[in-house]
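Justification of resources, computational component.

The compute hours requested in this renewal are based largely on the per-chain cost of generating structure records like the one below. Each record pairs the submitted sequence with a full structure-token output. That output is archived, and it is also reused by downstream analysis tasks.
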Amino acid sequence: MANKKYYLTKEGLDKVKKEYEELKKEKRSKIKTEAPEVFHSEDVNPEYISFRKDMSVLEEKIAKMEEVIRGAQMIESPQKDCKEINLGAEITVDVKGQEDKITLVGTMEADPALGKISNESPVGKALFGRKEGEEVTVSSPIQTVYKIKKVEYPSK
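The structure output for this chain reads:
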């Protein structure tokens, strides 16, 4: 697999690392406490098969976290007065007369309910590289015009 980049804030990377460590602990714990004995018979041991399936799912999650950690690319804030939209930007937009605040993040940290949109989403792609005062039209099922009112980058 090609080395995919995962754009993350420091907080996002810390969260991934913490989840990775918790998954490794869970795997060790399951092996110690839940591993059924393998019966040496020709009968299928359903308890063992179920355990192997659970372990397989856990190992896939661990492998995904390792991939994310290896491919992590930190989101760096540009100079304070930068008005071009890049990863990490907090953007105030006007959509049909309603003002919304959104933050442009990588896919791993996207959470539209919290106003965090991915740079790979239709809105994120349309806003990326634009500046204050510009308007962008996003066509998904319906056309929506986003007027960029303000671009800020949080201070660290």
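The chain has a mean pLDDT of 86. The longest helix spans residues 10-34.
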